[in-house]
Amino acid sequence: MWSGNSLLPSWLRGERPRRVSVDYLTASPKRAAGGSMGGVIGGVAGNAAPPAFHNSRADESSEIPERQVIRTGSLEIIAGDPLQAAEQLRSLAAQFSGFVVTSNNNGSDEGTRSAQISMRIPAEYFDEARAEVRKIAKTVEQDTIEAHDVTRESVNQEAALRNARAEEAQYLSILKRAAAVEDVLEVSSKLAEVRGRIDALEGDLRFLHHQVEMSLLTINIRGMAEAQAFGLHWRPLYEAKVSLRGALGGMADYVDDMVALFLNLPVIAIWMLTIVALLKIGWLALRSTARIFFPGSMMWLRRLAHSRAT
C-alpha cells in the first residue's frame, strides 16, 4: 500500500476515503490514533484526517476578549493665525508620539487663511490631545467624536488566522511524507494558497490594530479678522474683503462673457443669415404650394394686401 497508493489524504484529492486492513491500522499506534498519514476519519478508516481547525468560540468561551474600539475626532476652530496654529498642531502630534497624516494651508491674506491638519494620536492620549487643541484655538465652533467597536471583527479574524495556521501545519506534515512528484506539487499548491490567506489575514489584523491603537484627529482651522464692539463680534474688514472679492469676480465674469460674445460675432452672423435664408426658402415653397393647390387663396391674399395698401 505504501508503494502503490498516493500519500495524499482523500479530502485533499477530492476522493472518498478507502478502507484498509486492520493489520495496517494496528501496525502503528500513531496511525491508529488518527495521525498525519493514516487513521480513522469520521468513523471510516483510511487516509489522513483533514486539518484540525480550531473552534475559536470554544477556545475563547472562558475568556472575555479585550474591547477594540476605533476612535476618530474632528474639530473646527478659529485661530488668530491659522498657519501658526497648524505649526503648533504639528508639534503637538510629535509631543504625543503621533504623526501628521495630511496638512493643507490655504489663503494668502489674514482674513481668508485656513488650514487643515489630520493626525494620528495614540488612543491613550486622544482626550488629552483634544484638550490641547482647544487651548490653541481662539474659538471652537464644532467638536465631534465617533467610536466604532471592532471587537467582533478582530476576534473573527484572529480565529480565521489560527485555523489557517493549523491548516498550514497539516499541509507541512503531509508534504514531509509525500514521495510522488504529483503529490508534492498538489500539496505545495495548497500550501501556497493557505500561506497567501495567512498573509492577507495578518495584514488585515495589523491594519485593524493600528487603527485601534492610533486614533485619528482632524482639525479644520479658519482665520477671521474680528473686532469686538459692545459685546458683539463685528467684522467690517472681513465683510468688506468678501464683498470686494465677489464684486471683482462678477466683473471678471462680465468681461469674460463680453469677450466671448465679441469673438463669436462672426459665428452668430452666419447663423442669423442661415436662419433668414431658411425662412425665405420656406416662404417661397409655401407660396408655390398654395398657388398650385389653392389658386383662390392667392387671389384673396392679393386683394387683402391691395386693400391694406390703399
Question: Can you give keywords for this protein?
Answer:
single chain, 310 residues, alpha+beta, 4 domains, five-stranded mixed β-sheet, two-stranded antiparallel ribbon, 11 helices, 9 strands
Could you explain how this protein is built, in words?
It is a single chain. The chain has 310 residues and is an alpha+beta fold. It has 4 domains: 1-50, no CATH class; 52-224, no CATH class; 233-263; 265-309. The protein has 11 helices and 9 strands. The protein has helices at residues 10-13, 22-27, 29-32, 56-59, 82-95, 126-136, 151-177, 181-213, 236-263, 265-293, 295-309, and strands spanning 39-41, 44-46, 69-79, 99-106, 114-122, 139-149, 214-223, 227-229, 232-234. The strands form 3 sheets. Strands 4-5-7-3-6 form a 5-stranded mixed beta sheet. The longest helix has 33 residues, at 181-213.
Number of strands: 9
Indicate the overall shape. flat
Overall pLDDT confidence? 75
* C-alpha Rg (nearest Å): 41 Å
Structural domain tally? 4
Q: How do the strands of the widest beta sheet line up side by side?
A: 4-5-7-3-6
Q: Would you spell out the secondary-structure blueprint of this structure?
A:
Layout: H1 10-13, H2 22-27, H3 29-32, E1 39-41, E2 44-46, H4 56-59, E3 69-79, H5 82-95, E4 99-106, E5 114-122, H6 126-136, E6 139-149, H7 151-177, H8 181-213, E7 214-223, E8 227-229, E9 232-234, H9 236-263, H10 265-293, H11 295-309
Helix pairs in contact: 5-6, 7-8, 10-11
Concise synopsis of the structure shown:
By secondary structure, the protein is an alpha+beta fold.
